[in-house]
Design goal:
Blueprint lengths: L16 H26 L7 H9 L4 H9 L1 H25 L11 H15 L4 H25 L6 H25 L1 H12 L7 H20 L1 H7 L3 H6 L4 H23 L5 H13 L3 H25 L8 H23 L1
């Protein structure tokens, strides 16, 4: 897989239209996120109006309408949390590996979570969304940390070795998953529902369970912007500027692992959010990772919520799982990314 170096950051705080554009972009992303939250609680098998939602919030709505709107709160909260986690994780991954095609799956996060769930279901009798979440979380964390350990061990560790370590681990874990699911049909039935990725069928217990891991990842990500800016110049230049490339890379991978593990454990493996959002963000706010991380949060949350709303509307009264919708959205994003890579090669 090809790697590339992002252009040096122009520097946050540069006066002029560049700074104004970044501020406007973040404000617009925040407004879009608010609208996406309202859409998420309005639309479903039964549509409610904007005024209905306002009445529910003020406590003056009909009990039936209140019950409908409030039943959508958990999936909306999970959509916001998972979307921002996946988007920021993707931004970190592309910065750490200097690869515009990198996303959380590159670390083996999804494969680790899937393998853990399959093993728990097959050998320990785990079942249900809560059991699935608790088994997915350690699997995702262990896989991410294992890739980091393999990719950074010994002399010459770098982005390419991390990518190769992730690819190898994914191949091994997927072989394990196929071996178990093909030999145990009941495990396959449970696994195939989770692996698509969906926001429905979860409650606030899932949200609160993964929130500490997400917060820890976000706190680390907030500190990594300046380090990722220097890392984008190359390891040698970053070291000459006083940065520690190995420490920045380790922090980025740890943060991306925590964020991806929290999102994957909560809603299943959802593809392309971590790939598409960083490209949109980079086009709008530039190459400064401080702005990219900040902008990715509302952009990723809004994208996942809107994808979920689309999935609920197009097949009413049934619904299309959000993981399927994001796959349709992400395919064009991947093609655009590939074309941009060819243009800069």
């Amino acid at each position: 897989m090809a790697t590339t170096t992002h252009a040096p950051p122009s520097g946050a705080g540069t006066p002029g239209t560049g700074t104004a554009r970044r501020v406007y972009s973040v404000v617009i992303a925040g407004v879009v996120l608010v609208l996406a939250v309202f859409a998420s609680v309005m639309f479903g098998s039964r549509t409610t109006s904007f005024n209905d939602v306002l009445h529910v919030l003020s406590g003056t709505a009909d009990p039936n309408v209140t019950a409908i709107v409030e039943s959508r709160y958990p999936r909306t909260a999970l959509g916001v949390l998972a979307g921002l986690c996946l988007a920021i994780a993707g931004t970190l991954m592309q910065g750490v590996t200097r690869n515009p095609l990198a996303d959380p799956g590159l670390l083996g996060i999804n494969a680790g979570a899937c393998a853990s769930i399959v093993a728990a279901t097959a050998f320990l009798g785990a079942s249900g969304s809560t059991d699935t979440m608790w088994w997915a979380l350690p699997g995702a964390l262990i896989a991410g940390l294992l890739v980091h350990a393999i990719g950074s061990a010994g002399p010459g560790g770098g982005p390419v070795r991390l990518v190769l370590a992730g690819a190898v681990l994914c191949a091994v874990l997927m072989a394990f998953i196929q071996a178990v699911t093909l030999s145990r049909p009941k495990v396959f039935d449970s696994y195939r529902y989770w692996v698509v990725g969906a926001l429905g069928g979860r409650d606030f217990d899932v949200f609160w369970s993964v929130l500490p891991f997400a917060v820890a990842g976000l706190l680390i990500a907030a500190l990594l912007g300046p380090g990722l800016n220097t890392l984008a110049l190359g390891d040698s230049t970053a070291a000459s500027l006083g940065a520690n490339p190995a420490l920045v890379r380790a922090g980025g991978l740890l943060s991306a692992t925590l964020l991806s593990a929290a999102a994957t454990a909560a809603v299943g493996p959802i593809a392309f959010v971590g790939l598409a959002v960083p490209h949109v963000v980079r086009a709008l706010v530039g190459v400064d990772f401080r702005m990219q991380i900040l902008f990715s949060a509302p952009a990723g949350a809004a994208l996942l919520l809107l994808a979920d709303v689309v999935g609920r509307v197009v097949m009413r009264p049934q619904e299309l799982m959000v993981g399927v919708v994001t796959a349709f959205i992400g395919a064009p994003a991947l093609l655009i990314a590939v074309r941009r890579m060819r243009g800069t090669a």
